[in-house]
Each structure stands twice: as C-alpha cells, then as structure tokens.
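Section 5.1 Outputs to date
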Amino acid sequence: MSQHIAPPEAAPSRGPGPGSSRRRILFGAIAGVAVMIALALGFTFLDGGGPGTEPSSVTEGDAPPGELPVSSTYTTVEGAPSDPDPLGRNDGLVVHPIRETPVHDAPDGRAIARMETTQFGDTWLPVLAEQPGWVQVLLPSKPASSTGWIRADDVERARTPYVVEVHLGSKTLELVRDGDVVGQWSVGIGTEETPTPTGRTFLLGAFADQNQNFSPVILPLGTHSPTLDTFGGGPGTVAIHAWPEASSFGQAVSNGCLRISQEALEQLTEVPLGTLVIIDQE
C-alpha cells in the first residue's frame, strides 16, 4: 500500500512559493529524490553504515545571509541557545522557511547560522516561543537541543496534532494525537555505551536508503548521539526506523537509534514533519 509522509495540517500559504505539492513527500518520490539527497550528503544514521562525509564545524559571527553557515544535521552551530525546557510540549505550532533565512541567538540578536528551505524534504521546525516578529525553533544541528530565532515573516505556519513520546525506562514509544494515545509499541533503544539522547527533538525528515533492507523508510530526528561524534562517516544523527527482529524490541541494543515495528513505522509515516519527539527516562 502506498504511504506518504504527511505535511502539517492546514498550512496557510505565506509569501512566494509554498504550496501543497512542496509540503508532501510521496514514498515514490523518496526513492527518486530523497535517496539521492541522502547519498549526495553522505547521511548515515546510527544503525547504518556506508560512505559518508565528516560533519562540518560552524562558528558564530555576523555575516551576510548568503555567507552564514547552514544549520543542519551535519553541522555544529556555536553560540546557539540551549532548549530552555527540554521535556516541554508546545501547542503543535511548526514553521517552514519560505526562503533561506538567518538564524539568530535572540530576537534582533546576532546571526549565527542560516536555515535552508529543504533538508530531507521541506524543512519544518517546532516553535518553542514567540516574540513580536520572531519565532524560536529547535535546530537540527549540534549541540543537541540547540535553538535559534527566525524572523516570523520568513516562515509559513501550520499545526500538527501529534506528539511522539519515547520512554527509555520502559522502552516504549507512544504516538499521541490531540492528547490521546493512538498507538503504543515496545522499541529498541541505545546501549549504555551508545545511549539514545533524552530531551525534546523533532521529526526532521524521511528518506529511503537503498543500502539496507530492514526499514523501507528512515525517519531522522533533529538530535545526535551523546557519545558518537560520527558513525560510519556520517554525523551520528539519531533516527527512528523499522527492525525485522522482534527480539530487539524492549531491549537496549542499538547505537542510539530507535528500532520499531513495521506497524509502528506505518503510523509514524503519517505524522507531519516538525512534530515534537519527547525522549525521557520514564
């Protein structure tokens, strides 16, 4: 059955360009487009392998927007504020940059990076706070739980009804919609040496990886391993993906990724990008 990564619901169009077609990733397009992105950028998630590139280092400082380093899963943004409430929920507000835009360390503050319109598909980021003319968002770059401020005029707004809750103590994942648990599964988590990081992150994207056959789609998160700076040549990005061996579920067996059943993956592929993923020790 054909599946898709759903766009955030009721996303109004603001500014030039965005439309329904650019906010939807079809599984067929994943094979033709997203895989090309993954291979071109050398993306390697924590349970994978294969060729890759070393993550770049980003330094802070003011610069014209075109010269600012990009905030992505491959980079480190120095000077980015830490998440003020690592286990907090938001009201579902997510934003999509409608143009390449600077990321600031505070409203009207110093520009420390830039955010591109696409990463693994369109870039959708959860909003943590708002001030007149500005939104504070979680960043996909290192350090984990980094945030930044983007001008409100540079983003398209939408809301997601979902939150993904991961409980490392009980090794379970819950899919919550409008406050109600609509799915719960046992999952495999990171080992003691390569733990799954805690805190709030988000669904960064989706792609298919032709170099493996255990998960038809990989869901990279906007967070990274606390112990592995790189993995298989990639940036050590934590991801959610299916796993064929049920014996992994309920066990600490991965390099930091979350291993889930095919049933769970099918439901998570319907969750809008930018949706918060809360990882705690419960």
